[in-house]
Amino acid sequence: xxxxxxxxxxxxxxxxxxxxxxxxxxxxxxxxxxxxxxxxxxxxxxxxxxxxxxxxxxxxxxxxxxxxxxxxxxxxxxxxxxxxxxxxxxxxxxxxxxxxxxxxxxxxxxxxxxxxxxxxxxxxxxxxxxxxxxxxxxxxxxxxxxxxxxxxxxxxxxxxxxxxxxxxxxxxxxxxxxxxxxxxxxxxxxxxxxxxxxxxxxxxxxxxxxxxxxxxxxxxxxxxxxxxxxxxxxxxxxxxxxxxxxxxxxxxxxxxxxxxxxxxxxxxxxxxxxxxxxxxxxxxxxxxxxxxxxxxxxxxxxxxxxxxxxxxxxxxxxxxxxxxxxxxxxxxxxxxxxxxxxxxxxxxxxxxxxxxxxxxxxxxxxxxxxxxxxxxxxxxxxxxxxxxxxxxxxxxxxxxxxxxxxxxxxxxxxxxxxxxxxxxxxxxxxxxxxxxxxxxxxxxxxxxxxxxxxxxxxxxxxxxxxxxxxxxxxxxxxxxxxxxxxxxxxxxxxxxxxxxxxxxxxxxxxxxxxxxxxxxxxxxxxxxxxxxxxxxxxxxxxxxxxxxxxxxxxxxxxxxxxxxxxxxxxxxxxxxxxxxxxxxxxxxxxxxxxxxxxxxxxxxxxxxxxxxxxxxxxxxxxxxxxxxxxxxxxxxxxxxxxxxxxxxxxxxxxxxxxxxxxxxxxxxxxxxxxxxxxxxxxxxxxxxxxxxxxxxxxxxxxxxxxxxxxxxxxxxxxxxxxxxxxxxxxxxxxxxxxxxxxxxxxxxxxxxxxxxxxxxxxxxxxxxxxxxxxxxxxxxxxxxxxxxxxxxxxxxxxxxxxxxxxxxxxxxxxxxxxxxxxxxxxxxxxxxxxxxxxxxxxxxxxxxxxxxxxxxxxxxxxxxxxxxx
Length: 869
Known about the structure:
elongated; Rossmann fold; eight-stranded mixed sheet; single chain
């Protein structure tokens, strides 16, 4: 094989090994995000294990590789690639076993200790393949001497291959799922190993040049290696922090990680190739200041990028990735280009054999990078927050790079960096980041390794809990409060004698507060976010009844808690989760539903709530089918745009038992436990037994919906009209529903009227989607006649009556009379109460205005101009 052809083949093969390496990294990150349930943990531990292995392997390979010929070195690369592929093939089989073993070992540990145990196991698990990858680098550089290739070209091509590998899983995962995608990449790795073994036959063996190469080999000075390790630490700090930052503002974490790795490695590769045309003496002076300032400068664009992403409409997930990835590249590519040039410039600066020097420099940089990833994820983020940590990482990059700066005047770049960076040392307020909350005020910001939690006050005084700026978990708006409380009301009404209840997720505490009117309850809530726990105890206490003092709160991951807890409960409530976020769909998995069932007492009920606007028909079928495969008696209830999957351990309680308990309640308790709607309204929301949809099951280790929902989100969106049509297509007939619930013949008329109102509500919402106001009013009136206690049609009518106040005919109803009609229909109509208060104030009726103000404050204690500020 001609020398030029041999060089091209080596470059292509080594670039392909970079592609497989980064594909492994992204896929393993995805795997660990499933395991941890928090995507940033998967990122940090995968990157740390990868970089630690690469560094240790590079040191080991450098000392060994100097003794090998180019041919033998390349054969070693081939066998290492084959070993990595074999390891990757075995990993999906081992992970469930490892996960189960860790749960047994971690029983009784606190959440931080548990996460540390998981992280330590992951580091040990991923270290061997990363060690092999690290050893391959200096061996490949040694083999490159046989084809007269430079360090810059090998390093650059490998990084560019890695850039392709970073986005390859995004194409494979939706097609094959996680396990099969990993096997595809591993199979390609095996093919590369075979090709590499063939090419090794054409490389030279030992020669006099080899002895000369070995004799001239020297390790760079320790101080210089330490400085370059610091640069590696700073670089990976930036990568972790960018992943957290852009994962909040743009696409979800694994997509942002892939985009960042693409940009990062493309910059490294191009920077390395460009270094051949750069003068080391000049650029080693300029790199520290330029890279640090570029890292900080991108922070000034955060508000604009977030506003643009929040207000833009993307036609598909691919379009969103391309456009948002382009924005990420604009902010980060200048930094990565400069980072890529550093290694070849240092090797040239020290006048060493480039292949020998590369292993030492690469190893030091990688070891530093591993430390930097762990430091950023578990020390800097909780203590300093994302923005200030990024400024610190940029400062560290500058200081370490100053090791090779000869012009003392360039030390002025340090105060310049601090001057430029200080205005962006904290994230902008939510009002500047989210177009949906333009007039909001940040009341509280809490950041740790799990998430960034905001409590935000809107212009009307209502508060919202935000997690990672992407999940608007709950609001204190009266309608939102009622709907959240309903998530506790339904499960507790369906159990004949509940004594213990477990809430999977606390959030604002409003859902759990729906259980307060039920006497004799022992309440437990498990919540992963410490920020949410703090917010529920303070900022949301006015609307959650001070629930933190009346519930046993456990700071833990819901999946681990169900696996390690030895208590049993009468009722378990699964709160709403955002299923398209990494790890969240595991809370809707086969294994999670099985865990919940195991923690139920005999006759217990598990209710999992779902928001219809977060699913398409295909994905919600998967969740329902998975739920029904666990619970023999699995049914569906509909409350607005939220549905409840209800599973029983054992035979469901008959209606007469529920009515007996309800009949023993006081009138006040009946109103409070049902939200004023009465128990028959809730029984009338019974939709039917969940049919057999024959879809794939949502398995923790073979998830389905996480790959389809992002396409829905960034494509045509959720088609709610199709969703309602599909739900109506299999709704149970009244007689079958009555038989399933055990409704007596004497109660059949009441039950049927409640069910008619529920069906008409759906027709009402369909008409709203079509923009047919005439039909909306028609359906609302019919539903109200069928069941006046049902809040949905009553509010639909009240809202339209209120909107018509501006067009009252002359000589008709007065404004006062019209408002009183609205309040007769819905005494809790906030806008009508506010209008009555203002009317009394305008007419000088101070006492009457104060009474209306008190009613409004009771309904909406946080409404602006009502509460004491």
